[in-house]
Predict the 3D structure of the following.
Amino acid sequence: MSKKKQDSILQPPYSFNVAWENLLDDKNFIKVFLSDVLEAYVVKQRWYGGKASKLKYIELREYFRIQQKGEVYYGLLLEVNFEEAFYQHYFLPIAFVTDENFAEKERILPLSINGQEGFIIDAINLEAFRKLVFERIVNAEPNDTTRVRYHKSLGFHDNVYESSRFMGLEQSNTSVIINDKSVIKFFRRIYADKNPDFEMSQFLSERKGYKNTPAYQGSISIMDADNVNVTIALMQELVPNQGDAWEFMLKELHKIFSNLEYKGINVHHLPRTELFERLNIRDVPPEIIDWAGLNIFLKLQVLAQRTAEMHIALGSEFEDTAFTPTHFNGDYEVWLKNRLLYQFQNRLNTVENNLHRLEGLSLDLANEFLERKNEIRKRFVTFDWTKLKGERIRVHGDYHLGQVLVQDDDFYLLDFEGEPESTIRDRKVKQPPLKDIAGLFRSFHYAVYATIFNHMEEYAYSQEDLFLAGEILYRYFIGVFLETYATLIQEHNINIGYRQERIFLLEYCMLEKAVYELGYEMNSRPRWAVIPLQGIMSIINEPN
């Protein structure tokens, strides 16, 4: 008999003559809980990452208690198995509530325990649970060796719980604001290893004193059945801010594009610069400053400085092997090429299968992409580690404008979890620091085109002219950023190679990033496929 058939034999109302503290030892309860009921709940959650695949069944991999005195909650480590023969692990804390008016949308299962009617819900919806988690962290003993490990930063001294609220809509995790001073991020998708966001946050703020990331305050982890340390939650400082740099950039770019008409600018007469040409602000032609304004370039210099300082901190460790800089080698080259060629083939298939959804410039570029596939593939294969003299370090890994907070005239860098498509092991591979820079440059490119798409009707210019103006501006953004970044990096002896190597790595990593983006756009919003396609072609057409 299949698992699903077994589950369907048990019918509601579910009743168990067992105390809540012992409920997860009851095999009948586990059978009911892991049935279609939990599946129906999980697939509707924003944090569920398996929406593109077909769920087969859910197993309870293991569980642990989160408790203090008489208060008991369960932390569940769920294994979601898919028809496509792979699985993902998720963290779900649960609570039992009896109040009919509570958490109507978050109810997982109605049941009766020892005659008491109630519901099992996601515990994060309960303030009592959030308070308990905060108190367990702030009262954590140093060098905790128990199965569930709470850790508090030595620099954190706020021990009294006052309030908590949800941070807002998030995709893959759930964050709660505590006392309007701290954020506890509960990781939903979990991995059999320390989460990179926890590792990097603790390293940067505790070990290196890097000020422009939310300060590490504490964490929760569990030693699983295989004695592997699994990160469950991360607590950090809440940084007051005016939103993220993506929104900031869109507002600035809208002003800049509106200026074209206001200042009567002929796009075709704008002076141009080479891609990756390092530029001081005084090297930017007055026509560009007059059009775009000085402020945006000053802001880019600050962002470049904060980015360089992050890489300087990450590249200056010589004790902890997880963060020690290293050089390029044959193993890295093999790993990189295997990964990229697999990804490239996947994107080729996606483009071929979705050509009918494209039109105009997007279709022209997609056809060119397919025609020149061997040329693009060759660019990935031409990675020769023996010619590279720079260093590899731990990097952010998914660096873009959405991962940067704006605070007045400064920037804070956050979310070090890494690229969602990558395995946890791949996210911890040391990379050239320019991989992060390439990600940010691709984000600049996206912001330019997103602004054009969002306001096309408001600008008195053709789409072709707007794209041309955007490409010109984008190169000046890159040039000013690069000058500040490279100068600071080199002053602190972080080796990113000489000019030729830097340009090779930037082009290589930007090509990789644009190919990665192409898959998402082709599947989700084909109209925007023009952005990564334009990015791919501008690199392929750039003289080597």
